[in-house]
Design brief:
289 residues; alpha/beta; 7-stranded mixed sheet; globular
Length: 289
């Protein structure tokens, strides 16, 4: 779906969540690689890269591979995720220039030893109550000429045709509406929450940065798709069933149950028409002063 929500919880089964986050990021790697190739034309030789809200480090390691002369620091509030990030970096041969810092954004960035040449924040900013202040804090850590890259917005992922032959057509659109309401409630409940127009270039400009580009990147894994994509689809729909099960109309709840039942020929495990189609948007700005 549209959001990854791991930064604001303390009672999570990290072994289960980490696997879901890794699977998703690995599946989305073609999208991320295109985004980083685009970013490479804007910040050509960064010395220090920070992945703010790194999770288990899939993107952190892609950053290390895309910028082979850079030192990469993965920052996240969950130490178990950073353990996986360090193990991944070692496994991929980039561990010698890979570090981690555990703590809550944005204050933990004060622990950095040097100004940052590229600060990447992938869907972590929206977990800060005051997003304007968060961007200002990110900007304050940049070196002169340094780039802030925010991955925020885009479009909700789609896995299913509008009419899947069971239940009412348009199931995913109704799930999107429930998630949007949940997301608004989550934002409102954050500490120091401030309602803000999500004009990311304008917010970057308010922090003294010069907007240098906005571009959206597509992940298109058409049907018939892979077993890995099917597993991700099933996990994503299963999480939505867990969160919104009681809010769903009985018909939609029954449809989701069938979609998630591996023994059902109409399930995402067996049907031939499931796919993954998603769009993520990246906004970049540079510190000129």
């Amino acid at each position: 779906m549209a959001h990854d929500h791991h930064h604001d919880h303390t009672d999570i089964d990290w072994s289960r969540m980490a696997q879901h986050l890794e699977t998703q990021a690995e599946l989305f790697t073609p999208l991320y690689e295109r985004a980083l190739a685009w970013l490479g034309h804007k910040q050509t030789e960064p010395g220090l890269i920070v992945d703010a809200g790194s999770g288990p480090g899939v993107l952190s390691c892609l950053l290390a591979e895309a910028f082979p002369a850079a030192r990469v620091v993965a920052v996240d509030g969950a130490e178990p995720l950073l353990e996986r990030a360090r193990a991944r970096a070692t496994r991929l041969g980039v561990g010698d220039r890979f570090d981690t810092i555990a703590g809550q954004l944005p204050g933990i960035l004060d622990d950095l030893d040097y100004p940052v040449d590229l600060l990447w924040a992938s869907r972590s900013l929206h977990h800060l109550g005051d997003q304007r202040a968060g961007i200002a804090a990110f900007a304050s850590r940049l070196a002169r000429g340094g780039t802030l890259a925010l991955m925020e917005g885009g479009l909700p992922a789609r896995f299913l045709p509008r009419d899947i032959g069971i239940g009412r057509p348009g199931l995913q659109a109704r799930l999107d509406a429930l998630e949007e309401a949940w997301f608004a409630e989550m934002r409102a409940g954050l500490a120091d929450s401030v309602a803000e127009v999500e004009d990311w270039p304008a917010l970057m400009a308010s922090a003294g940065l010069r907007h240098t580009g906005t571009r959206s990147f597509l992940l298109d894994l058409p049907a018939p798709t892979t077993d890995r994509a099917r597993a991700y689809i099933a996990a994503s729909l299963g999480r939505l069933r867990d969160v919104f099960g009681e809010q769903l109309e009985p018909d939609d709840r029954g449809t989701l149950d069938r979609l998630l039942d591996p023994e059902d020929a109409a399930s995402v495990h067996q049907r031939a028409d499931v796919f993954v189609l998603a769009v993520h948007t990246v906004h970049t700005a540079v510190r000129t002063g």
